[in-house]
Amino acid sequence: MTIQQFKSNAIKTLSETSPSAALDVSVLLEFCLKKNKTWLLMNAGEELSGEQAEWLTEAIEKRKTGLPVAYITGHKEFYGYDFIVSPAVLIPKPDTEILVEKALDAILTKMEARPDIVLSVCDMCTGSGCIGLSVLKQLIEDYNVPSEKLPKFTLVDISPDALEIAKKNAKSLIPAEEAEEIRFIQSNLFEAVPYTFDVILTNPPYIPATMVDELLLDGRNEPRLALDGDTYISTEESLELETSGNFSKIGKSNDGLKIIRSLWPQCAEHLIHNGIVLMETGEYNAEKSRTLAEECGFRNLKIHRDLEDQLRVTEAVK
Predict the structure, then answer these.
(1) pLDDT at 212
(2) DSSP characters for the chain?
């Protein structure tokens, strides 16, 4: 079977279940053959090996069930970097890149104002580590911050499986000396975090419960705990539910703000004076999140828009 024959058949197969069939097939081909789009176009008549054809056929069957391409390949690009992903973590989204940009602005400004100290940065609800690690990698590679001046990063997540993915990404993306300095903490928000920080970055679950139910109907297999902003429970309960998938007995609000309501006061407790929070809250909850921050005593409140011009990130100063 040639590349073109497989591509044509696969697009036809996926067209009924995927709104992006052609893109899905292209990404799977590029990943399997380790070639770029231009090479695939120029060599469309090349024969696939038996092993390649088998992997691609299995991948298309998985995609037909609704499984995201990123979970099939185990990789997703974010901020120009290749992140390892699995169904244990939320797939990094382009809209979140604005959080990285604003974090870099905040951190570099603080470093310039206070060159005599080493800043501390927390990436709360880190998942794959895409936010904190992208910021750290930028500081190292694009801004050439020397090791002794790099902020101390702490990556926190309630899920031990998510933290394992974050550790793998740190190992693959960050130079060994700097990667060894990163702290990884399993915690339900700040429950088990004993530190205070200059900057807190976070993309917490913020989708209303009923919307999560609808999203998961398509088989996307992203972890509910990373999506549902209305479930706030103990660490033990969360891990049990993550395994069983039975969320039916957990009492919920339905505005996606239950976790954020708990997170703002905890951020206030774990920030130093003049510390900054950058929190992704989504277009439907950004203004309410700003109000919650103001009620907790935060000031200099701003809401930043994403690439689609949607309200996305709430910024606040303690």
Answers:
(1) 53
(2) -BHHHHHHHHHHHHTTT-TTHHHHHHHHHHHHHT--HHHHHHTTTPBPPHHHHHHHHHHHHHHHTT--HHHHHTEEEETTEEEE--TTSPPP-GGGHHHHHHHHHHHHHHHHH-TTS--EEEEET-TTSHHHHHHHHHHHHTS---GGGSPEEEEEES-HHHHHHHHHHHHHHS-HHHHTT-EEEE-STTTT----EEEEEE----B-HHHHHHHHTTT----GGGTBTT----HHHHHHHHHH---TTS---SSS-HHHHHHHHHHHHTEEEEEEEEEE--TTTHHHHHHHHHHTT-EEEEEEE-TTS-EEEEEEE-
